[in-house]
Write a structure and sequence with these properties.
The structure holds two protein chains of two kinds. By secondary structure, chain A is α/β, with parallel strands linked by helices. Chain A has helices at about 40-50, 70-80, 95-105, 110-125, 140-150, 170-185, 195-205; strands spanning about 1-10, 15-25, 30-35, 55-60, 65, 80-85, 160, 190-195, 205-210, 215-220. Chain A is built from seven helices and ten strands. Chain B has a four-stranded antiparallel β-sheet. In chain B, helix 9 packs across helix 11 (about 270-275). Classes of the chains: A alpha/beta, B alpha+beta. Chains A and B meet through helix 3 of A and helix 1 and helix 8 of B.
Chain lengths: ~230, ~300
Protein backbone atom coordinates (compact mmCIF):
# COMPACT_ATOMS: atom_id res chain seq x y z
CA UNK A 1 0.00 0.00 0.00
CA UNK A 2 2.88 2.35 0.77
CA UNK A 3 5.86 2.14 -1.51
CA UNK A 4 9.09 4.10 -1.40
CA UNK A 5 10.77 3.86 -4.79
CA UNK A 6 14.50 4.66 -4.64
CA UNK A 7 13.91 7.74 -2.56
CA UNK A 8 16.86 10.02 -1.85
CA UNK A 9 16.94 13.33 -0.01
CA UNK A 10 19.87 15.68 0.19
CA UNK A 11 19.63 18.95 2.03
CA UNK A 12 21.21 22.17 0.86
CA UNK A 13 24.32 21.64 2.98
CA UNK A 14 25.03 18.54 0.90
CA UNK A 15 24.48 15.96 3.65
CA UNK A 16 22.51 13.02 2.28
CA UNK A 17 19.67 12.46 4.74
CA UNK A 18 18.23 9.55 2.76
CA UNK A 19 20.07 7.41 0.30
CA UNK A 20 18.23 5.31 -2.26
CA UNK A 21 15.50 3.97 0.00
CA UNK A 22 13.25 1.29 -1.42
CA UNK A 23 10.62 -0.06 0.93
CA UNK A 24 7.06 -1.39 0.90
CA UNK A 25 4.47 -1.50 3.67
CA UNK A 26 1.36 -3.67 3.50
CA UNK A 27 -2.09 -2.84 4.91
CA UNK A 28 -2.51 -3.50 8.64
CA UNK A 29 1.22 -3.80 9.18
CA UNK A 30 2.88 -2.56 12.34
CA UNK A 31 6.33 -1.26 11.42
CA UNK A 32 8.97 0.08 13.80
CA UNK A 33 11.85 2.14 12.50
CA UNK A 34 14.96 2.35 14.66
CA UNK A 35 18.30 4.08 14.33
CA UNK A 36 20.59 6.59 15.93
CA UNK A 37 19.78 10.27 15.84
CA UNK A 38 20.48 11.54 12.38
CA UNK A 39 19.96 8.15 10.78
CA UNK A 40 17.14 9.51 8.66
CA UNK A 41 14.03 8.22 10.48
CA UNK A 42 12.31 11.57 10.70
CA UNK A 43 13.26 12.46 7.14
CA UNK A 44 11.66 9.25 5.94
CA UNK A 45 8.45 10.24 7.69
CA UNK A 46 8.58 13.71 6.18
CA UNK A 47 8.72 12.12 2.75
CA UNK A 48 5.62 10.12 3.50
CA UNK A 49 3.83 13.14 4.91
CA UNK A 50 4.80 15.20 1.88
CA UNK A 51 6.12 17.81 4.23
CA UNK A 52 9.14 17.91 2.00
CA UNK A 53 9.85 16.54 -1.44
CA UNK A 54 12.51 13.90 -2.21
CA UNK A 55 15.54 14.96 -4.21
CA UNK A 56 15.00 11.89 -6.34
CA UNK A 57 12.69 8.92 -6.32
CA UNK A 58 8.96 8.69 -5.62
CA UNK A 59 6.65 7.82 -2.77
CA UNK A 60 3.42 5.98 -3.58
CA UNK A 61 0.24 5.47 -1.62
CA UNK A 62 -1.91 2.88 -3.39
CA UNK A 63 -0.20 3.68 -6.69
CA UNK A 64 -0.62 7.44 -6.36
CA UNK A 65 2.58 9.48 -6.45
CA UNK A 66 1.94 11.66 -3.45
CA UNK A 67 4.36 14.41 -4.42
CA UNK A 68 2.51 15.03 -7.65
CA UNK A 69 -0.70 15.93 -5.83
CA UNK A 70 -2.00 19.46 -6.05
CA UNK A 71 -2.71 21.55 -2.97
CA UNK A 72 -6.36 20.68 -2.74
CA UNK A 73 -5.71 16.94 -3.11
CA UNK A 74 -2.80 17.19 -0.69
CA UNK A 75 -5.16 18.30 2.04
CA UNK A 76 -7.33 15.24 1.48
CA UNK A 77 -4.24 13.04 1.44
CA UNK A 78 -3.00 14.42 4.76
CA UNK A 79 -6.35 13.60 6.34
CA UNK A 80 -5.75 9.94 5.64
CA UNK A 81 -2.73 9.99 7.94
CA UNK A 82 -2.83 10.52 11.68
CA UNK A 83 0.34 11.78 13.31
CA UNK A 84 1.66 11.68 16.84
CA UNK A 85 4.79 13.50 17.95
CA UNK A 86 7.21 13.29 20.80
CA UNK A 87 6.26 16.81 21.89
CA UNK A 88 2.54 16.12 21.61
CA UNK A 89 1.79 19.28 19.54
CA UNK A 90 -1.60 19.99 21.00
CA UNK A 91 -3.38 23.30 20.54
CA UNK A 92 -2.77 24.93 23.89
CA UNK A 93 -5.76 27.26 23.73
CA UNK A 94 -8.27 24.54 23.14
CA UNK A 95 -9.63 21.96 25.56
CA UNK A 96 -9.08 18.21 25.18
CA UNK A 97 -12.47 17.85 23.51
CA UNK A 98 -11.80 20.79 21.18
CA UNK A 99 -8.37 19.51 20.22
CA UNK A 100 -9.93 16.31 18.94
CA UNK A 101 -13.03 17.93 17.46
CA UNK A 102 -10.81 20.38 15.62
CA UNK A 103 -9.41 17.55 13.54
CA UNK A 104 -12.93 16.59 12.55
CA UNK A 105 -13.99 20.16 11.87
CA UNK A 106 -10.94 20.63 9.68
CA UNK A 107 -12.04 17.54 7.75
CA UNK A 108 -15.46 19.09 7.26
CA UNK A 109 -17.45 16.61 9.32
CA UNK A 110 -20.89 17.52 10.60
CA UNK A 111 -21.66 18.52 14.17
CA UNK A 112 -23.63 15.31 14.63
CA UNK A 113 -20.68 13.12 13.64
CA UNK A 114 -18.43 15.12 15.92
CA UNK A 115 -20.76 14.79 18.88
CA UNK A 116 -20.82 11.02 18.49
CA UNK A 117 -17.22 10.28 17.52
CA UNK A 118 -15.21 12.55 19.79
CA UNK A 119 -16.48 11.22 23.14
CA UNK A 120 -16.16 7.68 21.79
CA UNK A 121 -12.55 8.05 20.80
CA UNK A 122 -11.66 9.87 24.02
CA UNK A 123 -13.17 6.98 25.99
CA UNK A 124 -11.04 4.61 23.90
CA UNK A 125 -7.89 6.29 25.19
CA UNK A 126 -9.29 6.46 28.69
CA UNK A 127 -9.74 10.23 28.93
CA UNK A 128 -13.47 10.16 29.57
CA UNK A 129 -13.17 12.42 32.60
CA UNK A 130 -10.94 15.05 31.06
CA UNK A 131 -12.98 16.46 28.19
CA UNK A 132 -12.80 20.06 29.31
CA UNK A 133 -9.24 20.23 30.62
CA UNK A 134 -6.64 22.31 28.85
CA UNK A 135 -3.36 20.70 27.77
CA UNK A 136 -1.36 22.49 30.44
CA UNK A 137 -3.50 20.78 33.05
CA UNK A 138 -2.62 17.29 31.83
CA UNK A 139 0.26 14.92 32.51
CA UNK A 140 2.58 13.83 29.70
CA UNK A 141 0.85 10.49 29.29
CA UNK A 142 -2.57 12.14 29.14
CA UNK A 143 -1.36 14.66 26.57
CA UNK A 144 -0.08 11.91 24.35
CA UNK A 145 -3.39 10.11 24.64
CA UNK A 146 -5.19 13.25 23.47
CA UNK A 147 -2.79 13.36 20.55
CA UNK A 148 -3.60 9.75 19.71
CA UNK A 149 -7.32 10.39 19.96
CA UNK A 150 -6.92 13.31 17.58
CA UNK A 151 -4.84 11.21 15.23
CA UNK A 152 -7.40 8.43 14.92
CA UNK A 153 -10.71 10.31 15.10
CA UNK A 154 -10.94 10.69 11.32
CA UNK A 155 -10.30 6.95 10.86
CA UNK A 156 -7.07 7.33 8.91
CA UNK A 157 -5.45 4.59 6.85
CA UNK A 158 -2.07 5.22 8.45
CA UNK A 159 -0.97 6.31 11.90
CA UNK A 160 2.56 7.65 12.22
CA UNK A 161 4.08 7.90 15.67
CA UNK A 162 7.40 9.76 15.73
CA UNK A 163 9.11 8.88 19.02
CA UNK A 164 5.80 9.02 20.87
CA UNK A 165 7.16 7.87 24.19
CA UNK A 166 10.31 9.97 24.25
CA UNK A 167 8.97 12.24 26.99
CA UNK A 168 7.14 9.62 29.01
CA UNK A 169 7.93 7.38 31.98
CA UNK A 170 7.98 3.58 31.56
CA UNK A 171 4.41 3.02 32.70
CA UNK A 172 2.97 5.63 30.34
CA UNK A 173 5.22 4.32 27.60
CA UNK A 174 3.73 0.88 28.00
CA UNK A 175 0.17 2.22 27.93
CA UNK A 176 0.77 4.26 24.80
CA UNK A 177 2.25 1.31 22.97
CA UNK A 178 -0.71 -0.82 24.01
CA UNK A 179 -3.06 1.75 22.52
CA UNK A 180 -1.06 1.77 19.31
CA UNK A 181 -1.25 -2.03 19.14
CA UNK A 182 -5.00 -1.81 19.60
CA UNK A 183 -5.24 0.65 16.74
CA UNK A 184 -3.22 -1.67 14.56
CA UNK A 185 -5.53 -4.55 15.46
CA UNK A 186 -8.38 -2.55 13.93
CA UNK A 187 -6.56 -2.66 10.60
CA UNK A 188 -4.72 0.65 10.52
CA UNK A 189 -1.09 0.74 9.39
CA UNK A 190 1.07 1.93 12.30
CA UNK A 191 4.55 3.30 11.65
CA UNK A 192 6.53 3.89 14.80
CA UNK A 193 9.98 5.42 15.15
CA UNK A 194 11.81 4.96 18.40
CA UNK A 195 15.10 4.63 20.29
CA UNK A 196 13.55 2.44 22.92
CA UNK A 197 14.96 -1.08 22.95
CA UNK A 198 12.37 -2.37 25.38
CA UNK A 199 9.44 -1.44 23.13
CA UNK A 200 10.96 -3.10 20.10
CA UNK A 201 11.79 -6.32 21.87
CA UNK A 202 8.36 -6.58 23.46
CA UNK A 203 6.48 -5.94 20.20
CA UNK A 204 7.92 -8.73 18.15
CA UNK A 205 6.79 -7.05 14.94
CA UNK A 206 8.58 -5.85 11.80
CA UNK A 207 11.66 -3.73 12.52
CA UNK A 208 13.52 -1.59 9.99
CA UNK A 209 16.96 -0.41 11.08
CA UNK A 210 18.42 2.72 9.52
CA UNK A 211 21.87 4.22 9.60
CA UNK A 212 23.23 7.23 7.78
CA UNK A 213 20.29 7.44 5.47
CA UNK A 214 20.25 3.80 4.43
CA UNK A 215 18.23 0.78 5.52
CA UNK A 216 20.65 -1.70 7.01
CA UNK A 217 18.24 -4.33 8.23
CA UNK A 218 14.59 -5.18 7.73
CA UNK A 219 13.32 -8.16 9.72
CA UNK A 220 9.77 -9.46 10.03
CA UNK A 221 9.92 -10.26 13.74
CA UNK A 222 12.70 -8.01 14.70
CA UNK A 223 14.64 -7.36 17.77
CA UNK A 224 16.52 -4.19 18.61
CA UNK A 225 19.91 -4.68 17.05
CA UNK A 226 22.05 -1.81 15.85
CA UNK B 1 -22.26 22.92 5.09
CA UNK B 2 -20.75 26.24 4.16
CA UNK B 3 -22.83 27.86 6.87
CA UNK B 4 -21.55 25.39 9.46
CA UNK B 5 -18.02 26.06 8.27
CA UNK B 6 -18.48 29.80 8.68
CA UNK B 7 -20.16 29.36 12.02
CA UNK B 8 -17.19 27.31 13.24
CA UNK B 9 -14.71 29.92 12.04
CA UNK B 10 -16.60 32.72 13.79
CA UNK B 11 -16.90 30.70 16.98
CA UNK B 12 -13.19 29.92 16.89
CA UNK B 13 -12.38 33.60 16.35
CA UNK B 14 -14.47 34.60 19.36
CA UNK B 15 -12.83 31.98 21.54
CA UNK B 16 -9.36 33.07 20.44
CA UNK B 17 -10.19 36.66 21.27
CA UNK B 18 -11.26 35.92 24.80
CA UNK B 19 -8.78 33.20 25.62
CA UNK B 20 -5.73 35.18 24.51
CA UNK B 21 -6.71 37.94 26.93
CA UNK B 22 -3.52 39.92 27.13
CA UNK B 23 -2.76 39.82 23.43
CA UNK B 24 -6.29 40.92 22.62
CA UNK B 25 -6.05 43.71 25.14
CA UNK B 26 -2.88 45.17 23.60
CA UNK B 27 -4.22 44.84 20.08
CA UNK B 28 -7.41 46.66 21.04
CA UNK B 29 -5.37 49.41 22.70
CA UNK B 30 -3.22 49.96 19.64
CA UNK B 31 -6.28 50.06 17.41
CA UNK B 32 -7.84 52.50 19.83
CA UNK B 33 -4.97 54.90 19.24
CA UNK B 34 -5.33 54.55 15.48
CA UNK B 35 -9.05 55.18 15.54
CA UNK B 36 -8.60 58.02 17.98
CA UNK B 37 -6.23 59.67 15.50
CA UNK B 38 -8.79 59.25 12.73
CA UNK B 39 -11.52 60.70 14.94
CA UNK B 40 -9.32 63.64 15.93
CA UNK B 41 -8.67 64.31 12.28
CA UNK B 42 -12.40 64.48 11.66
CA UNK B 43 -12.84 66.97 14.48
CA UNK B 44 -9.82 69.03 13.51
CA UNK B 45 -10.98 69.43 9.96
CA UNK B 46 -14.42 70.42 11.19
CA UNK B 47 -12.89 73.08 13.43
CA UNK B 48 -10.67 74.33 10.64
CA UNK B 49 -13.51 74.58 8.20
CA UNK B 50 -15.70 76.34 10.70
CA UNK B 51 -12.96 78.84 11.47
CA UNK B 52 -12.30 79.49 7.83
CA UNK B 53 -16.00 80.03 7.16
CA UNK B 54 -16.16 82.53 9.99
CA UNK B 55 -13.14 84.41 8.72
CA UNK B 56 -14.41 84.45 5.17
CA UNK B 57 -17.59 85.87 6.45
CA UNK B 58 -15.84 88.88 7.91
CA UNK B 59 -14.32 89.89 4.63
CA UNK B 60 -16.31 92.07 2.25
CA UNK B 61 -16.20 94.98 -0.13
CA UNK B 62 -17.86 98.20 0.85
CA UNK B 63 -18.85 100.59 -1.88
CA UNK B 64 -19.58 104.10 -0.63
CA UNK B 65 -21.54 106.41 -2.87
CA UNK B 66 -21.48 110.20 -3.27
CA UNK B 67 -24.15 112.02 -1.33
CA UNK B 68 -25.82 113.14 -4.55
CA UNK B 69 -26.43 109.60 -5.80
CA UNK B 70 -30.11 108.69 -5.92
CA UNK B 71 -31.41 105.67 -4.10
CA UNK B 72 -32.81 104.29 -7.35
CA UNK B 73 -29.44 104.34 -9.03
CA UNK B 74 -27.89 102.61 -6.04
CA UNK B 75 -30.56 99.95 -5.96
CA UNK B 76 -30.08 99.37 -9.68
CA UNK B 77 -26.43 98.71 -9.03
CA UNK B 78 -27.36 96.40 -6.17
CA UNK B 79 -29.49 94.31 -8.54
CA UNK B 80 -26.69 94.17 -11.09
CA UNK B 81 -24.24 93.02 -8.43
CA UNK B 82 -26.53 90.37 -7.05
CA UNK B 83 -26.82 88.98 -10.56
CA UNK B 84 -23.08 88.32 -10.69
CA UNK B 85 -22.26 84.64 -10.12
CA UNK B 86 -19.46 85.41 -7.69
CA UNK B 87 -21.60 87.49 -5.40
CA UNK B 88 -23.16 85.84 -2.35
CA UNK B 89 -25.10 88.77 -0.83
CA UNK B 90 -25.33 92.53 -1.13
CA UNK B 91 -26.72 94.66 1.66
CA UNK B 92 -27.79 98.28 1.38
CA UNK B 93 -27.20 100.90 4.04
CA UNK B 94 -28.93 104.21 3.38
CA UNK B 95 -27.42 107.58 4.26
CA UNK B 96 -29.78 107.97 7.17
CA UNK B 97 -28.99 104.57 8.59
CA UNK B 98 -25.28 105.27 8.17
CA UNK B 99 -25.64 108.43 10.17
CA UNK B 100 -27.42 106.63 12.99
CA UNK B 101 -24.74 103.96 13.14
CA UNK B 102 -22.02 106.60 13.06
CA UNK B 103 -23.60 108.53 15.92
CA UNK B 104 -23.92 105.37 18.01
CA UNK B 105 -20.34 104.37 17.43
CA UNK B 106 -18.99 107.75 18.36
CA UNK B 107 -21.53 108.49 21.02
CA UNK B 108 -18.89 109.35 23.61
CA UNK B 109 -16.82 111.57 21.43
CA UNK B 110 -18.13 115.11 21.93
CA UNK B 111 -15.73 116.61 19.40
CA UNK B 112 -17.07 114.48 16.55
CA UNK B 113 -20.69 115.06 17.46
CA UNK B 114 -20.10 118.82 17.53
CA UNK B 115 -18.39 118.66 14.14
CA UNK B 116 -21.44 116.92 12.75
CA UNK B 117 -23.68 119.69 14.11
CA UNK B 118 -21.55 122.31 12.40
CA UNK B 119 -21.73 120.57 9.03
CA UNK B 120 -25.49 120.58 9.21
CA UNK B 121 -26.15 118.26 6.36
CA UNK B 122 -25.52 114.46 6.52
CA UNK B 123 -21.97 114.04 5.20
CA UNK B 124 -22.22 110.32 4.86
CA UNK B 125 -23.11 108.53 1.68
CA UNK B 126 -25.10 105.35 1.21
CA UNK B 127 -23.14 102.16 0.91
CA UNK B 128 -23.42 98.65 -0.36
CA UNK B 129 -21.71 95.76 1.47
CA UNK B 130 -20.83 93.01 -0.96
CA UNK B 131 -19.92 89.47 0.13
CA UNK B 132 -18.41 87.14 -2.44
CA UNK B 133 -18.63 83.36 -2.31
CA UNK B 134 -14.87 82.87 -2.12
CA UNK B 135 -12.20 85.37 -1.01
CA UNK B 136 -10.44 84.91 -4.35
CA UNK B 137 -13.46 86.27 -6.19
CA UNK B 138 -13.43 89.72 -4.65
CA UNK B 139 -10.97 90.90 -7.24
CA UNK B 140 -13.35 90.24 -10.13
CA UNK B 141 -16.19 91.94 -8.31
CA UNK B 142 -13.99 94.96 -7.72
CA UNK B 143 -12.98 94.99 -11.38
CA UNK B 144 -16.63 94.85 -12.37
CA UNK B 145 -17.30 97.92 -10.30
CA UNK B 146 -14.39 99.76 -11.83
CA UNK B 147 -15.22 98.89 -15.41
CA UNK B 148 -18.92 99.58 -15.45
CA UNK B 149 -19.76 103.18 -16.06
CA UNK B 150 -21.94 104.08 -13.17
CA UNK B 151 -22.99 107.55 -13.98
CA UNK B 152 -25.79 109.65 -12.76
CA UNK B 153 -27.55 112.09 -14.90
CA UNK B 154 -24.73 114.56 -14.71
CA UNK B 155 -22.15 112.12 -16.09
CA UNK B 156 -20.27 111.85 -12.84
CA UNK B 157 -19.54 108.53 -11.25
CA UNK B 158 -21.81 107.85 -8.33
CA UNK B 159 -19.21 105.77 -6.58
CA UNK B 160 -17.26 107.62 -3.98
CA UNK B 161 -14.86 104.93 -2.94
CA UNK B 162 -14.37 101.22 -2.92
CA UNK B 163 -12.56 99.98 0.08
CA UNK B 164 -11.54 96.67 -1.45
CA UNK B 165 -8.16 97.68 -2.63
CA UNK B 166 -7.27 98.78 0.84
CA UNK B 167 -8.08 95.30 2.08
CA UNK B 168 -6.66 93.54 -0.90
CA UNK B 169 -3.43 92.47 0.70
CA UNK B 170 -5.32 91.18 3.72
CA UNK B 171 -7.72 89.24 1.52
CA UNK B 172 -4.92 87.81 -0.56
CA UNK B 173 -3.07 86.70 2.51
CA UNK B 174 -6.21 85.09 3.85
CA UNK B 175 -6.72 83.16 0.61
CA UNK B 176 -3.18 81.86 0.76
CA UNK B 177 -3.45 80.84 4.37
CA UNK B 178 -6.68 78.99 3.67
CA UNK B 179 -5.20 77.14 0.73
CA UNK B 180 -2.01 76.18 2.56
CA UNK B 181 -3.90 75.06 5.65
CA UNK B 182 -6.10 72.79 3.64
CA UNK B 183 -3.18 71.25 1.78
CA UNK B 184 -1.10 70.83 4.93
CA UNK B 185 -4.02 69.39 6.81
CA UNK B 186 -4.58 66.83 4.11
CA UNK B 187 -0.94 65.73 4.05
CA UNK B 188 -0.71 65.46 7.82
CA UNK B 189 -3.89 63.42 7.85
CA UNK B 190 -2.60 60.91 5.34
CA UNK B 191 0.74 60.52 7.13
CA UNK B 192 -0.83 60.04 10.55
CA UNK B 193 -3.34 57.52 9.32
CA UNK B 194 -0.71 55.49 7.49
CA UNK B 195 1.55 55.44 10.53
CA UNK B 196 -1.26 54.31 12.77
CA UNK B 197 -2.28 51.56 10.41
CA UNK B 198 1.28 50.27 10.20
CA UNK B 199 1.57 50.11 13.96
CA UNK B 200 -1.73 48.27 14.22
CA UNK B 201 -0.69 45.82 11.54
CA UNK B 202 2.55 45.11 13.36
CA UNK B 203 0.84 44.48 16.65
CA UNK B 204 -1.58 42.05 15.08
CA UNK B 205 1.28 40.34 13.30
CA UNK B 206 2.93 39.84 16.68
CA UNK B 207 -0.24 38.29 18.01
CA UNK B 208 -0.34 35.84 15.14
CA UNK B 209 3.37 35.10 15.49
CA UNK B 210 2.75 33.98 19.03
CA UNK B 211 0.37 31.38 17.61
CA UNK B 212 2.75 30.10 14.95
CA UNK B 213 3.19 26.68 16.51
CA UNK B 214 -0.54 26.27 16.66
CA UNK B 215 -0.82 27.23 13.03
CA UNK B 216 1.66 24.53 12.00
CA UNK B 217 -0.24 21.95 14.03
CA UNK B 218 -3.45 22.97 12.33
CA UNK B 219 -1.81 22.50 8.95
CA UNK B 220 -0.56 19.07 9.98
CA UNK B 221 -4.00 18.03 11.13
CA UNK B 222 -5.30 18.84 7.66
CA UNK B 223 -7.04 22.18 8.05
CA UNK B 224 -7.16 24.28 4.89
CA UNK B 225 -6.07 27.93 4.77
CA UNK B 226 -9.51 29.44 5.17
CA UNK B 227 -10.02 27.39 8.29
CA UNK B 228 -6.71 28.51 9.78
CA UNK B 229 -6.85 32.12 8.68
CA UNK B 230 -10.56 32.66 9.25
CA UNK B 231 -10.49 32.80 13.05
CA UNK B 232 -7.63 35.29 12.97
CA UNK B 233 -9.56 37.59 10.67
CA UNK B 234 -12.57 37.29 12.97
CA UNK B 235 -10.38 38.18 15.95
CA UNK B 236 -9.01 41.12 13.99
CA UNK B 237 -12.51 42.36 13.28
CA UNK B 238 -13.33 42.03 16.96
CA UNK B 239 -10.26 44.07 17.90
CA UNK B 240 -11.50 46.73 15.51
CA UNK B 241 -15.06 46.67 16.82
CA UNK B 242 -14.10 46.90 20.46
CA UNK B 243 -11.57 49.63 19.76
CA UNK B 244 -14.17 51.57 17.76
CA UNK B 245 -16.74 51.41 20.54
CA UNK B 246 -14.15 52.50 23.09
CA UNK B 247 -13.05 55.37 20.87
CA UNK B 248 -16.60 56.63 20.46
CA UNK B 249 -17.13 56.42 24.19
CA UNK B 250 -13.86 58.24 24.83
CA UNK B 251 -14.90 61.13 22.62
CA UNK B 252 -17.96 61.79 24.72
CA UNK B 253 -16.25 63.21 27.82
CA UNK B 254 -13.51 64.73 25.68
CA UNK B 255 -15.81 66.78 23.49
CA UNK B 256 -17.85 67.70 26.52
CA UNK B 257 -14.75 69.04 28.23
CA UNK B 258 -13.51 70.88 25.15
CA UNK B 259 -17.05 72.06 24.85
CA UNK B 260 -17.61 75.61 23.88
CA UNK B 261 -14.32 76.41 22.24
CA UNK B 262 -15.24 80.03 21.73
CA UNK B 263 -13.90 80.96 25.12
CA UNK B 264 -10.63 79.10 24.82
CA UNK B 265 -9.65 79.41 21.22
CA UNK B 266 -11.74 82.29 19.93
CA UNK B 267 -13.38 79.93 17.56
CA UNK B 268 -17.13 79.69 17.28
CA UNK B 269 -17.29 75.92 17.35
CA UNK B 270 -18.79 73.70 19.99
CA UNK B 271 -17.08 70.32 19.92
CA UNK B 272 -19.78 68.47 21.81
CA UNK B 273 -22.65 69.80 19.71
CA UNK B 274 -20.78 68.86 16.55
CA UNK B 275 -20.18 65.34 17.86
CA UNK B 276 -23.82 64.81 18.79
CA UNK B 277 -25.32 66.22 15.64
CA UNK B 278 -22.97 64.23 13.39
CA UNK B 279 -22.88 61.17 15.61
CA UNK B 280 -24.24 58.72 13.08
CA UNK B 281 -21.70 59.62 10.42
CA UNK B 282 -18.78 59.65 12.84
CA UNK B 283 -20.00 56.35 14.27
CA UNK B 284 -20.09 54.81 10.80
CA UNK B 285 -16.65 56.08 9.82
CA UNK B 286 -14.96 54.88 13.00
CA UNK B 287 -16.62 51.48 13.10
CA UNK B 288 -15.96 50.78 9.43
CA UNK B 289 -12.34 51.94 9.79
CA UNK B 290 -11.85 49.70 12.81
CA UNK B 291 -13.33 46.62 11.19
CA UNK B 292 -11.52 47.13 7.90
CA UNK B 293 -8.13 47.81 9.45
CA UNK B 294 -8.52 44.83 11.80
CA UNK B 295 -9.65 42.45 9.10
CA UNK B 296 -7.03 43.46 6.55
CA UNK B 297 -4.20 43.50 9.09
CA UNK B 298 -5.10 40.00 10.28
CA UNK B 299 -5.47 38.68 6.77
CA UNK B 300 -2.10 40.02 5.66
CA UNK B 301 -0.34 39.10 8.89
CA UNK B 302 -1.48 35.50 8.73
CA UNK B 303 -0.32 35.05 5.14
CA UNK B 304 3.22 34.69 6.30
CA UNK B 305 2.53 31.54 8.25
CA UNK B 306 0.30 29.92 5.72
CA UNK B 307 2.56 29.39 2.77
Amino acid sequence: MIYFDRVSKTYSDATPALHDITLGIEPAEFVSIVGHSGAGKTTLLKMLLAEEAPTSGKVFLQSIDIHSLRRREMIYYRRRIGIIFQDFRLLSHKTVYENVSFAMEAAGRTDKEIESDVPHVLELVDLGKKFWSFPNELSGGEKQRVAIARAIVNQPDIVIADEPTGNLDPLNTFEIIQILKKINDFGTIVILTTHNKGIIDSLGKRVISMEEGKIIRDSKEGRYVL
Amino acid sequence: MLLVHIKRIIRSGFFNFFRNGFVSFSSVLVMLVTLFVIGSVIFSSAVLNSTLETLKDKVDIRVTFVTTASEQEILNLKDKLEALPEVETVSYTSREEALVIFKERHGDDQLILQALEELGDNPLGSSLNIKAKEPSQYESVANFLQNEEFLSGGGVSIIDKINFFQNKTAIDKLSNIIDSSEKLGFIITIVLVIMSILITFNTIRLAIYISRDEISVMKLVGADSSYIRGPFVVSGILYGLFAAILTLLLFLPMTLWLGDMAKRFFVSFNAFDYYMSNFLEIFAIIIVSGVVIGAISSYLASRRYLK
